[in-house]
Amino acid sequence: MAERSVSVQGSANQSIIITGDHNQVGGAAQFRIPLVRHHAPARRRRGPQTPPNVLDILSAHNKALSLQGREPELTILNEWLSDDTDISVFAITASAGSGKTRLAIELCEQAELQTGWAAGFVRSDDLEQLAHAFKFAQANWSHSLLLVVDYAGANAQALAQWLDALSQLDDLADGIRVRILLLEREASKEAGWWHTLTGSALGSDQARLDLFTRFEPYALTGLSDIAVRRAVLCAALNAVQALVPYPQVSAIPEAGEQPDFDTALADPQFGNPLALVMAGILCRDMSPRAALSLHYLAAAEKLAQREIDRFYKCFGEGADATKLAHCLCFHLLCGGLRIADMRQTLSAELVAMGWHSPGLDKELQALKQAFPPAEGGDETARLSTTQPDLIAEAMCIQLLQSDEELSLKAADILARVLKYGQDQAAATLVRLLQDFACPVSQPTAQLLKWAEQLVENNQHNRELIELLNGAMPLSSIALAEVACKLATLRYQQEQTKAESQLSEADLARLAMSLNNLAVRQSDLGQREVALASATEAVEHYSALAENRPDAFLPDLAVSLNTLATLQSSLGQHEAAHTSALEAVEHFRILAKARPDIFLPALAGSLNNLANRQSKLGQYEAAYTSALEAVELRRALAQARPDAFLPDLAGSLSNLANLQSALGQHEAAHTPALEAVELQRALAQAHPDAFLPDFAMSLNNLANLQSALGQHEAAHTSALEVFEHFRILAKARPGAFLPDLAGSLNNLANRQSKLGQHEAAHESTLEAVEYYRALAQARPEAFSPYLATSLNNLANLQSALGQHEAAHTSALEAVELRRALAQARPDAFLPDLAMSLNNLANRQSALGQHEAAYTSALEAVELRRALAQARPDAFLPDLAGSLNNLANRQSELGQHEAAHISALEAVELQRALAQARPDAFLPDLASSLNNLADIQSDLGQCEVALLSSKEAVQLLSPYFIKWPEAYKSWMGIVLGNYLRYCKAAEQEPDSELVDPIIEKLNELEQE
Q1: SUPFAM superfamilies attached here (predicted)?
Q2: How far from 50 is each of 27, 285, 370, CA to CA, in Å?
């Protein structure tokens, strides 16, 4: 690994020399900041006693394999290099092993092939000096620079200082460019390192934000092309066989040669280049099919154990194995020991572990031989570490678990590691937890226990809590509880500080910690406390924005969106609408002044507002908001499709749902289909990133196809959704099991529409089993979904004649929702009313007419109260419950009361249909048909005939237009009309009836 220095004063390809005494340029002090040039030929430092190492193939720094499948990204990055802007920052995010470091190395190599460019990686330890150097130097470069910062999240503060210094430099000489490429796993505008750099003007001015070429990182996704995957796999196998010849030579099957191998290669996990290379290496020792059968974490564990064994064999001669193992583990956990203090550090660590006066000569020698430092490093230089990170992490886990005493002391060891390694160690630890604390990994429970104990033991250690909280991923199923605990402690720290000082900066940090805490609490289903946190965050940001709107309006708008989402989840739909509307108003002002920065946020807020308006039954207003979001995102996507096509697809799907709610099913089909087509292309290219969103859009399309009577197409779409979520849930059950259960519910509805009641019953039963397991673990989050599935199951059991079982399922749904509604009436009273309606039908089927009447009456009373408060949202439901109540009253012989209920239902539906005919005319037809039956029971044959005829007249246009959707319904309504004609001794209206009968006959023949 060769190095080069860059110069601010002098020759850029020789050294960066900053002179000055911190007050003026020109003093005698000099220092240099080296660039690590992974793209330059590396000098081998392996001794003759050291055998070849297969990890040389895995490490991106060694360039053992050519870069494949990244041509589009390289094109984008080279265009960024050649842009006219003098100083520009670009960020890339990607999961572990996605190849972001390898891509950056390739870009450095291509940059230095151009005349006048120097390129390389900036070490974390040098960033603070670099920031200081640029602050006091004059910009007088003779070369353009590409500077790469890996693990940007662990260096956010130093990066902020550096970028602030760069933003204050004078214009560079013509043709000179400075490009800074930031690499990290994830980023968020709401919190964390990206928010520190771009999300708030606090502590910086607009000049720093102007350095960024885009206001969200470029998401590097997996390799979707199966041919590229096969090529990477072959290259890895060829490299390991060349490095360490093996008696039995393996070969990767050609495409089509082994269908089961091709299926395994298409698994989403192998979109990750590191997973492919690890599998390729293991193909040397096992069959290619067997290598692909391993989960990539299991493959990493195998390779980690081999590396531990190799380390002992090559470097452990004469050393105490237990002591050496602990030194190795500490070194890897802290992200690399500093050479200057490694003896002192390890000595203190071994004493803390119980060794007395430990000798360290052989252990230090072993570490230096195994992990030589970068060339030219000064006293701050660190030993190198095992690459890639995933293997180093697996080594740490195995070393800590290798001894019971070590495992028991793991939390204390980790605390000392963090105290020593600071940001770098915190980032290393959190990466380890992210990668291995998941359901498919064996050490999950142990890792989480260590993490929880670490936090518990150090809850009063402000520095450690701040370190861990800042390094935590923004979303993680496995780490949700740990992250919430850290966010709580961090908030408590800021609260204490703010109470004593009340400075603007302290209040801003307090508000940020509250918003972050609200998100963490919501992730755990703790919505009430999350709402309180979000409310307080908004209050603080409101006060801050009132004094300095230029600095704090963006943060206020973000926190309002968080608040709106939480208010909606608790049934506070009016309040949620108010919050979402205020967020839109703020972002509209911001976008008018700075459209390049805030138009994307405005579009996102409009989407959020549309959802809130929809919950209030304000479908026209919601449609307007969603349409504006689509228009904004379409314009953004035309300019930058790589960044905004996913957002456009999401908004299109949302727009389609709202058009469908307005009864505009044909119009809704167009955006729904466009959303699916966009996301299908994205998911095919980058399944790791976009497959879940594609599945959700396809789910929405299935519902719309069903509404249009396209039941076969709807079933096909729903089945594909289920298959996608089955794959995703197998790989990541913690994240996708709820989606799998939801897809089963939807598939059951589609199967039921095709008359496949047995298959629908099996699908719903499986969904209930999943939701029951999820609700046992997190009742506050998943009990509502369990109740919905039980409702669906009851309907299907009834359709199969299983009336006792249907009653049991419906009763359990009511009991669940009654308990939920007692705790949170605003959120769950509507669902309780729905379940009571369903229970009444099930009780009626069992002949329990008194009980059925009681359930139906309670449903009407609940919905009447809801409709008085929010008529737009609940009048349609009230009309449906009145119809049901009328039927129950009729069963008890209460025909006059039944007539009153049915008549009220018709009056409500008529008013609704006048306002929105496309949405409510079919429902009015249903109510009229029901009213006709009750009028007939009262002997009002002439009036019943009129009601029935009107029902046929209203429903027939829909049947003619969408025959498949309305066939069954039309048959029932027409049959009643003909029956009443006969009872009244009148001839049916042939002009009305004949086209319907002709169409029904055509459908029957088909």
Answers
A1: TPR-like
A2: 47, 21, 9
pLDDT at 440 over 80: no
Round to whole Å and give the CA distance between 332 and 324: 12
Burial class of residue 476 (count of CB atoms within 10 Å of its CB; 0-12, 13-18, 19+): buried
| 308, 395 Cβ separation under 8 angstroms | yes
- Can you give the pTM of this predicted structure? 0.72
Query: In terms of DSSP H, where are the helices of 244-272?
Result: 259-265
DSSP single-letter state for residue 252: P
How many C-beta neighbours within 10 Å does residue 408 have? Answer: 10
Q: Model confidence at 597, in pLDDT bands (50, 70, 90)?
A: confident
**pLDDT greater than 50 at residue 26:** no
Angle at 717 between CA 711 and CA 719, to 5 degrees: 100
Percent of the residues in the chain that have a pLDDT greater than 70, as a whole number: 89
Closest CA relative to residue 214, chosen from 528, 677, 655, 639: 639
Gap between the Cα atoms of 254 and 804, Å rounded: 56
pLDDT tier at 870 (50, 70, 90 boundaries)?
A: confident
Alpha-carbon distance of 42 to 45, in angstroms, equals 9
Domain map of the chain by residue range? 2-219, 226-294, 295-471
**Which range has the worst mean pLDDT, 48-57, 649-658, 743-752?**
48-57
Token pair 């071994």 is at which residue? 350
Give me the long-range contacts of 945-950 (CB less than 8 A, separation at least 24).
945/977, 945/980, 945/981, 945/983, 945/984, 945/986, 947/906, 948/973, 948/976, 948/977, 948/980, 949/977, 949/989, 949/992, 950/925
Helix/strand/coil (H, E, C) string of 657-698?
A: HHHHHCCCHHHHHHHHHHHHHHHHHHHHHCHHHHHHHHHHHH
The CATH number of domain 2-219 is 3.90.550: no
- Where in 110-260 does DSSP place strands (E)? 117-122, 144-149, 178-184, 218-219
Which of 86-95, 616-625, 881-890 is predicted with the least confidence, judged by mean pLDDT? Answer: 86-95
Please check whether residue 121 is in contact with residue 35, taking contact to mean a CB–CB distance below 8 angstroms.
yes
- C-alpha span between 735 and 738 (Å, rounded): 7
- Nearest to residue 336, comparing CAs of 380, 399, 390? 380
CA dist., res. 435 & res. 279, Å (int): 17
Kindly indicate the confidence band of residue 705, based on its pLDDT and cuts at 50, 70 and 90.
very high
Determine the Cα–Cα distance for residues 757 and 367; give it in Å rounded to an integer. 66
* C-alpha to C-alpha distance for 672 and 683, rounded to whole angstroms: 16
| Residue 584 CA from chain centroid, whole number | 23
Q: What is the pLDDT of residues 717-732, one digit of tens each?
A: 999 999 999 988 876 6
Q: What is the mean pLDDT of residues 942-950?
A: 94
pLDDT tens for residues 779-826?
Answer: 877 899 999 999 999 999 999 999 999 999 999 999 999 999 998 888
Average pLDDT for 127-134: 70
Burial profile 787-815: b = 16 or more Cβ within 10 angstroms, e = fewer: bbbbbbbbbbbbeeebbebbbbbbbbbbe
Contact 108, 37 (CB under 8 A): yes
Give the span between the Cα atoms of 519 and 516, in whole angstroms: 5
Write down the residue that tokens 């929809």 correspond to: 614
Phi and psi at residue 2, to the nearest 5°: -90, 160
Question: How would you list the strands of the sheet with 144-149, edge to edge?
Answer: 2-5, 34-37, 117-122, 144-149, 178-184, 87-93, 218-219
Residue 782 contacts residue 772 (beta carbons within 8 Å): no
Q: Which pLDDT score, from 0 to 100, does residue 905 have?
A: 95
* DSSP structure class, residue 203: T
What is the tally of helices (H) and strands (E) in the chain? Answer: 43, 7
CA–CA separation, 345 vs 389, rounded Å?
22
**What SS3 state is found at 120?**
strand
Degrees to nearest 5, angle at CA 518 with 513 and 520? 95
Residue 532 has pLDDT above 90, yes or no: yes
